[in-house]
Amino acid sequence: MYARRRRVYFLLMGGCLFLFVSAWSFVRLLSVEAAVALCVVAMVIPPVAAMIANRRGPDDRWWDDPSGDPKSDEWWDELDGKRRHED
Question: What is the pTM of this model?
Protein backbone atom coordinates (compact mmCIF):
# COMPACT_ATOMS: atom_id res chain seq x y z
CA MET A 1 0.00 0.00 0.00
CA TYR A 2 2.86 2.38 0.83
CA ALA A 3 4.53 1.76 -2.56
CA ARG A 4 1.31 2.56 -4.40
CA ARG A 5 0.83 5.84 -2.51
CA ARG A 6 4.46 6.78 -3.15
CA ARG A 7 4.11 6.02 -6.86
CA VAL A 8 0.94 8.14 -7.12
CA TYR A 9 2.69 10.96 -5.24
CA PHE A 10 5.64 10.97 -7.64
CA LEU A 11 3.34 10.80 -10.68
CA LEU A 12 1.37 13.80 -9.43
CA MET A 13 4.50 15.77 -8.63
CA GLY A 14 5.99 14.87 -12.03
CA GLY A 15 2.80 16.08 -13.68
CA CYS A 16 3.03 19.29 -11.68
CA LEU A 17 6.60 19.85 -12.81
CA PHE A 18 5.67 19.06 -16.40
CA LEU A 19 2.79 21.56 -16.35
CA PHE A 20 4.93 24.30 -14.85
CA VAL A 21 7.87 23.83 -17.23
CA SER A 22 5.70 23.46 -20.32
CA ALA A 23 3.63 26.50 -19.38
CA TRP A 24 6.61 28.82 -19.39
CA SER A 25 8.71 27.17 -22.09
CA PHE A 26 6.29 26.91 -25.02
CA VAL A 27 2.65 27.49 -23.99
CA ARG A 28 3.39 31.14 -23.15
CA LEU A 29 4.37 31.65 -26.79
CA LEU A 30 0.84 30.69 -27.81
CA SER A 31 -1.15 32.23 -24.97
CA VAL A 32 -0.06 33.85 -21.72
CA GLU A 33 -3.52 33.24 -20.22
CA ALA A 34 -3.21 29.50 -20.90
CA ALA A 35 0.25 29.49 -19.34
CA VAL A 36 -1.10 31.18 -16.21
CA ALA A 37 -3.99 28.68 -16.09
CA LEU A 38 -1.51 25.79 -16.31
CA CYS A 39 0.47 27.30 -13.44
CA VAL A 40 -2.69 27.62 -11.34
CA VAL A 41 -3.48 23.95 -11.96
CA ALA A 42 0.14 23.05 -11.13
CA MET A 43 -0.15 25.07 -7.91
CA VAL A 44 -3.10 22.95 -6.71
CA ILE A 45 -1.41 19.58 -7.33
CA PRO A 46 1.25 19.53 -4.50
CA PRO A 47 -1.22 19.80 -1.58
CA VAL A 48 -3.38 17.10 -3.17
CA ALA A 49 -0.31 14.90 -3.67
CA ALA A 50 0.69 15.38 -0.02
CA MET A 51 -2.81 14.41 1.16
CA ILE A 52 -2.74 11.28 -0.98
CA ALA A 53 0.75 10.32 0.19
CA ASN A 54 -0.07 10.82 3.87
CA ARG A 55 -3.52 9.33 4.14
CA ARG A 56 -4.02 6.30 6.31
CA GLY A 57 -5.09 3.09 4.65
CA PRO A 58 -7.67 0.73 6.17
CA ASP A 59 -4.98 -1.65 7.47
CA ASP A 60 -2.48 1.01 8.57
CA ARG A 61 -2.06 1.95 12.21
CA TRP A 62 -1.72 5.54 13.36
CA TRP A 63 1.78 4.77 14.64
CA ASP A 64 4.54 2.35 13.65
CA ASP A 65 5.60 0.84 16.96
CA PRO A 66 3.66 -0.19 20.03
CA SER A 67 3.76 2.29 22.89
CA GLY A 68 5.46 -0.13 25.29
CA ASP A 69 2.55 -0.11 27.73
CA PRO A 70 1.04 -3.62 27.47
CA LYS A 71 -2.37 -2.56 28.79
CA SER A 72 -2.59 0.35 26.35
CA ASP A 73 -1.40 -1.77 23.41
CA GLU A 74 -3.92 -4.48 24.30
CA TRP A 75 -6.69 -1.86 24.43
CA TRP A 76 -5.73 -0.37 21.04
CA ASP A 77 -5.45 -3.84 19.46
CA GLU A 78 -8.93 -4.62 20.72
CA LEU A 79 -10.25 -1.36 19.22
CA ASP A 80 -8.52 -2.13 15.92
CA GLY A 81 -10.16 -5.57 15.91
CA LYS A 82 -6.81 -7.36 15.86
CA ARG A 83 -7.53 -9.40 18.99
CA ARG A 84 -10.83 -10.38 20.48
CA HIS A 85 -10.87 -10.94 24.22
CA GLU A 86 -13.50 -13.12 25.82
CA ASP A 87 -14.45 -12.18 29.36
Answer: 0.64
Chain center to CA of 32: 31
Evaluate whether 80 touches 59 at the Cβ level (below 8 Å): no
Confidence (pLDDT) at 60? 65
The single-letter code of the amino acid at 58 is P
Mind listing the pLDDT tens digit for each residue in 46-70? Answer: 999 999 888 877 666 665 456 677 8
Residues belonging to the chain:
87
What are the DSSP calls for 19-65, one per residue? HHHHIIIIIHHH-HHHHHHHHHHHHHHHHHHHHHHHPPPTT--SSSS
Going by the DSSP 8-state scheme, the letter that residue 16 receives in this structure is: H
